[in-house]
Structures are given as structure tokens and as C-alpha cells.
Amino acid sequence: MVGAGISTPSGIPDFRSPGRGLYSSLQQYDIPYPEAIFELSFFFRNPKPFFTLAKELYPGNFRPNVTHYFLRLLHDKGLLLRLYTQNIDGLERASGIPASKLVEAHGTFASATCTICLRSCPGEDFWADVLADRVPSCRVCTGIVKPDIVFFGEPLPERFLLHVADFPMADLLVILGTSLEVEPFASLSEGVCSSVPRVLINQDVVGTFAWHPRGRDVVQLGDVVHSVEKLVKLLGWTEEMRDLVRRETEKVPRVNR
Ligand code: CNA
What we know:
NAD-dependent protein deacetylase. The protein is α/β, with parallel strands linked by helices. The chain has helices spanning about 40-45, 50-55, 65-75, 90-95, 125-130, 165-170, 205-210, 225-235, 240-250; strands at about 85, 100-105, 105-115, 120, 145-150, 175, 200, 220. It has a domain at about 5-10 and about 65-105 and about 160-250: Rossmann fold, CATH 3.40.50.1220. The protein is built from 9 helices and 8 strands. It starts with about 40 loop residues before the first helix and ends in a 6-residue tail after the last helix. Carba-nicotinamide-adenine-dinucleotide binds next to loops.
């Protein structure tokens, strides 16, 4: 399970870190209060701020960091049952983890849906408009095309239901970079069997690790990259990680706008 804290080392602010979180820096988006950016009622009145944020998060503006590549390495080794992410930055996909291994619980910019005729389209269809500061519109009915990001009050993607089968099957749960404050995502942390070790890697102790810890819980506090590097070293995977990061970094040229 991962959240915004795994992408702060890639340069994307989280929501809640005081002073440097996204919610503290949303003034530039011309919205009445931070949460409005993900509210449908506000979006239909003024979709611009959301698309300004979308433009910021354009794939290619940011790169996966060691944490994403650690998860990719788990997949390469056949150890990743599933990656449940709250992030909408697409860096899990960018790290090379296939979509079949992902549950993007709060949605994705990889696809979009017309708000009027509900026609679905791939992300490539709307990015040109977003990058040119235009609100993308449907080719069929001219309705506003909304990227498949889950707004407040919207149902989670159907794939989220995979948790019903995944969590009882897991024999280790690793939780990285999340405040475990957003439901129903946060409660997944309680979905593994009570005998299954849970490892929290985060800046601070959060959620059930604070108020209802289990006997086999492990908590590693501090910067996520530092903690992951430490874990990788303990696993004896340092060389492999270095090779993977080198290969992937050479592959994806950074897009500078
Ligand atoms: P959050 O509530 O902002 O919590 C982030 C957590 O990560 C906090 O506990 C921080 O202390 C911790 N953290 C931040 N940086 C580090 C670091 N370098 N090392 C270790 N820990 C760190 O974010 P959540 O994901 O828990 O909240 C869910 C929201 C945030 C979802 O709806 C997301 O869509 C949303 N969000 C996503 C992104 C993104 O896609 N990158 C960015 C900002 C917000």
C-alpha cells in the first residue's frame, strides 16, 4: 500500500505535510478551499484549476524514485501480489510495473471519460489540450472530458474490489508513504490475517500502527528513500537495484517544459 509520501522524493508534494504539502500551496490554483480541486460541483463550475493541476502532473514531468523501483524489483522477482496506490501521478506505471499488478484506488490520468455521454478515451486523447491550457472536450458530444481521477463522493474503480481476494492471501504487507487517513483505502491495512507481519515505512507513525498495533508490526520511521535503501541493503539487492535504476533512467528522457 502506498501514498503520496513515496512521490515526494520525486518532487511531487503530498497533501498534508505542513507548509510543503499540496493543500498548503493550492493558492496558485484559484480555488476557494483546497479540497474543491477534487469536487465535482466545483469542477462543473470551473474545471480550469483541476486541469492546471493535471498539467503539473503530466507524465514525463516527474520520474520514479528508488521507492518505485523497489516495488518494481519486487514484481520482477515474482514477490508482488498487488500494489495498491492512492497516487494519481502514474509513477508506478512509469517504473515498469504492469497495470495488471496495480490497483490505482484514486484513479488515473491514463484514461478519461466524457462527463456527458460517458464515452471513454485513452489519456493520449486529452493531454494535448491540457498542455495547451485548454479544457478537453468530447469529440462526439463536446462535453467536458474528465480524466479518470476519483473525486470526492465518486465510487472507487472496480479493481479496488480485488482487495477482497488479495489481502487474505498476502503473507507480508508493506505500507509506504501514507498518512492512512483516507477511507476506505486506510482500512485495507487491517485486511491481512493477524499473523501476517505489516511493515510501515513512513515519516511518522500513522493509523492503526499508532492506535491498534499488532504484535508482528514493524515500523521504520524517517525518509522513505533512506529506509528503502536500508531494506534493499539488508536483502542483498543493492547491486540489482542500482542496475535497474540505471537501465530505467537511461530509457526515459526527462521532458522539460
Ligand atoms: P498524505 O495524507 O499527504 O500523507 C503522506 C504521508 O507520507 C504522510 O504521513 C507524510 O509524513 C509521509 N511522507 C511524506 N514524504 C515522505 C518521505 N519523503 N518519506 C517518508 N514519509 C513521507 O497522502 P496519502 O497518500 O496518505 O493521502 C491520500 C491522498 C493523497 C490521495 O487521495 C492521493 O490521491 C493524494 N495525493 C497524491 C499525490 C500523488 O499522486 N503523488 C500527491 C498528493 C496527494
